[in-house]
Design brief:
Layout (H helix, E strand, L loop, with lengths): L14 H14 L22 H32 L2 H20 L6 H17 L7 H4 L1 H15 L9
Helix pairs in contact: 1-2, 1-4, 3-4, 3-6, 4-6
Length: about 160
Amino acid sequence: MSGRRRLDWLGLTPEPERELPVAVAALRAPYPASPSPPPEAPAPAAEPAAAEPAAAEPAAAEPAAAELAAAERRRVERLVLRGSRHGWLRYLAEVTELVTSVAEGSRPGDRAAALLAAEVVLDHHRMLIGLPGTGYGRTAEDRTALESAVRTLRAPTRTGGMG
């Protein structure tokens, strides 16, 4: 190709841009919450022992979760508008690491958000086979890790619920 930048990677699918910011923000949150929007810890202070303060926590956490999702959305937007295929694949590798860490249990996190992110990134990586270049080959290990994570995250947890 001429000196122009290759943009074919941008046309794969809109799902990563649309679905990853909220899911990734949930995975980056300081500690896991319910499957709904993740809370952000105000500070690493001791958690309240009484039930009343804890009940008020989700309402206070919603703006923080929205801020985390907005920041992640801006990051994805920058990558799509000004980034490169290489930068985009680096970002998706970072998401893969978050997902696999939650699936393995080495990182606390929202299993539903991890499953969504895993499925979106896995679909994206599978579609790379249709593009010229080395993207499909470069993501082979991530595809294998994501396939394993999806199986793990779809399996019932010890408490009997689904991922």
